[in-house]
Amino acid sequence: MTTGHHRQGEVVAGTADEGTTRMSGPAPTSGLSRRQLLGGSAALGAAAWLLRGTIGPDSAQAATPVPPALPAGTELYQRVFQNWSGEIRTDQLWTCAPRTPEEVPALADWAHANGWRLRATGYRHTWAPLTVAAGTPESARILLVDTSRYLTAISVDSPTTVRVQTGATMEALLTHLAGRGLGLTACPAPGELTVGGVLAIGGHGTAVPAAGEVRPEGHGYGSVSNQVVRLTAVVLDPATGRYTLRSFGRSEADSAAFLVHLGRAFLTEVVLRAGADRPLRCVSRLDIPASELFARPSGAPGSGTGTGTGTGTGAGTGDGGLGGVLGGVLGGVLGGVLGGGGGPRTLADFVERDGRVEAIWFAYTEYPWLKTWSVTPNKPLASLSVDHPYNYPFSDSIPEPVARLAGDIITGAWGSAPLFGQLQYLVAKVALTGDLTDLLLSGDLLRQLLSGEVLTHLLAGGLRSDLWGPSRTLLQYIRPTTLRVTANGYAILTKRADLQWVVSEFAAYYRELLASYQARGEFPVNGAVEIRVTGLDDPASCGVPGARPPLLSALRPRADRPEWDTAVWLDVLAFPGTPGLERFARELEQWLLRTFDGTRAGLRVEWSKGWAYTADAAWSDPDLLGRVIPDSLRAGGGPGWDEAVAVLDRHDPHRVFGNPFLDGLLK
Predict the structure, then answer these.
(1) Where are the strands (E) in 306-455, listed by range?
(2) Rounded CA separation 95/142 (Å)
(3) What pLDDT, on a 0 to 100 scale, did the predictor assign at position 454?
(4) CB atoms within 10 A of CB 446
(5) CA gap 112, 654 in Å, rounded
(6) Mean pLDDT to the nearest integer, 279-296
(7) CA-to-CA distance for 198 and 224, rounded, in angstroms?
(8) What are the two backbone dihedrals, phi and then psi, of residue 435, each rounded to the nearest 5 degrees?
(9) Which of 69, 371, 564, 590 has CB 3.0 to 4.6 Å from 358, enough for a Cys bridge?
(10) DSSP character at residue 161
C-alpha cells in the first residue's frame, strides 16, 4: 500500500545489503511467505527494481580502476546506487564503509587531494538527487560512504539525551529511548532510515499540541533536527588545511547550518533531546467523505458546496449510491465506538481534539483513511494493546491482488488507476475495520480480486482500527516491503486557524485537476494524497539557551509571520514512469505557489521529495531552483538561506561534501 512515506533523508529500504545479489549466494528472503514473495515479484519485477551486487576491488568485474592511494584499511567495494523509488540509478560506484568516525576526515583529506567527492549514504530511502544524480557514470570521481555498516553506536548521554552515530536507524534510536522510558513526539514513519539521513533533510512526523496540551519537557512538534543538542561534523581546520572532527553545541551560531544540510555536510554523531514517553492511542477510520473532512471552513465562499466538482473521479468505483450510503452509516457507527463519532468532522476538528493526524486519500476514491493519535496514559477498553511497531501488515506485506494490479499498471495498464485506488481503499477498510459493506456492493471485478482467501489473509491478524501502546509502536508503521512509489512534497506554513482553509483549497483543486486529466483519458496519479500537520521548529524544544532553529528546515519560523505556527504537509504519490505525472505535478506546484504566495500562507519544499517540476522532470525548473526555493527560506528576514550556504562553504570550502546538483542549488 502506498502509505506513510515520511520524509526521510538520503537513505534505501532494507538492511545495508537487502535487494542486492551477493557474490557468495542467493539473497535472503527474510522469512517472507509465498504470498508476500508473489506480491513482491509481481509489483517489483514489473518495474525491474533490481540492484546489482557488490563487487570488491580485486574482482574481475570491477568496472574502473581502484581509487588511488586511499587511506590504509579502507573497506572498499563497488555498488550501484538506487534510491527508494528506482528513479535514481547509477553505474557501479566505488563505496567504502568507515569503521570509526576518525576515518572520515582522512577520507575527506584524500578526496580533496585527489579531486574526488564524498557522498554519505545509508538505506537510500529518498527521492531527490541529494546524494547522486540518476545515471551517474562509473567514471565519476565519487566515493559513496556507507554509514549504516559500522557508524551505528547509541549510548546514554544524560538522563534526557541520547548520543547516536548517524548510521544508526531510527528504529534502533526509538528502541533505545523506549528502554529508558523516553520518546519523541513525532518522527518519520519508516524505521529503516539512518538518523543522519533524517537530520539532513529535516525529517518530521505529524503533531501539533491538541486543545489544552502543554509541551512536555524534552518534546517538540517540529523536525527531528530541532531536537539536536550537539553535533559532530567533519570540517576543514583552517590552521592545518586538513579535515577534522569538530563538535558544535546548539548555542553556537554555526550549528544551525548543519542541522538540515541536504547532504552538503557530513555528520558522524549527534546528541538528541527526548522527553518522558507518552503512550498513544491510534484510531483509524474510513467513514468520513473527503467533501466533509476537507470541507471549506464555515463562512468561507462555497463552504456549503463541498471541496470541488469531483466530476468523474468516482465513476465506476462504488463510492456513491447505496454502497456509499451504507458504508457511511456503518462507518459512522464504528466511528462512534472508536471515539470522535459525533460532532464536527473536518481535519481541523480532529487536529484540535487529538493534535496528531494523517489523511491518506487513495486516488479516485471518496473516503480517506484518517488516522488520529492521542496521548492516552491508560489503555482504553476498546483498544488493542501493541508492544512492537509496524502494525498494518496489509500495508507492508502487499496482498497478491494489489501487487498483481500494480504490476499491470506499471507495465502499461495506466487506465486501471481508478480500480487500483478503490482496491487499496477496500483492502484498508476490510483489514482495519472488518466492514465488508463496500466490497459486497462493489463491482464483480473487485469482488473477484478480493476473494475469500484474500479476505481471510487480511483479517487473520485481527482488526487494527484502534491501537494503544508506547509511542514508538504507533509512530513507526512503514516497512521496506510496502509499494515503492514516487512523491512530490510541500510544507504550507500558516496559522493554526487557517489549517482547514489550506486543506480545503488544496483538496478542491486536486479534485478538479485529477478530473480534468481523467476526462481526457489520462491517469497521472495512481497512489494517494497524504496530508499531515506539524508545528514549526521552536528552539526551546532542545533545551539549550541561545539555540536557533535549523536554517534550511522547511519548518523554520518566519520572523515577520509570528502567527504562522503550523505546517500542512502535502504529498501526491504515484508509480515512477506514470504518463503525465510530471506535467500534473507541475500544474499542481504552480497552483500551490500562486495560492500560498506568502499573503495568507507560504510554501516551502519537502527536501527529500519531488519539486521544481517541468512538464518532463522533477528538480529541473530553473526558476524554482535559482529563485523561488532560496527565496522561500530568505523571506521574513533574519538568518536563513544565505547564511547557511556561507557557513557550509566556510567549513568545507573545497566542497568535498557535495555534488553538481547541490552546487547549482546551494549558491
Answers:
(1) 356-362, 369-375, 384-385
(2) 9
(3) 87
(4) 19
(5) 7
(6) 98
(7) 7
(8) -80, 115
(9) 371
(10) E
Establish how many alpha carbons lie within 13 A of residue 618's alpha carbon, considering only the half-sphere containing its beta carbon. 27
Residues with active-site annotation: 125, 358, 530, 532
Phi, psi of 106 (to 5 degrees): -65, -40
- CA–chain centroid gap for 473, Å, is 18
3-state secondary structure of 667: coil
- Read off the amino acid at residue 247: S
Instruction: Identify the burial level of 618 via C-beta atoms within 10 angstroms of its C-beta, where 0-12 means exposed, 13-18 middle and 19 or more buried.
Output: buried
Q: 597 with 560: CB under 8 angstroms?
A: no
Cα distance between residue 640 and residue 666, in whole Å: 12
Dist. CA 183–CA 269, nearest whole Å: 19
Which residues fall within 8 angstroms of residue 1, CB to CB, at 6 or more apart?
392, 394, 395, 398, 402, 424, 427, 428, 482, 483
The single residue listed with the C-alpha cell 528552539 is: 539
Other C-beta atoms closer than 10 Å to the C-beta of 36 total: 20
DSSP-based three-state secondary structure for 611: coil
Q: Check if the beta carbon of residue 28 is closer than 8 Å to that of residue 16.
A: no
Percent of the chain with pLDDT over 70: 84
Q: Which three cell numbers stand for residue 163?
A: 548520543
11-43: pLDDT as tens digits: 222 223 333 322 223 333 333 333 333 334 334
C-alpha cell of residue 602 = 507560504
C-alpha cell, 555: 519548518
What pTM was computed for the model? Answer: 0.88
CA-to-CA separations, 64 to 134, 437, 607, in angstroms, rounded: 19, 60, 32
Distance CA 207, CA 354 (A): 9
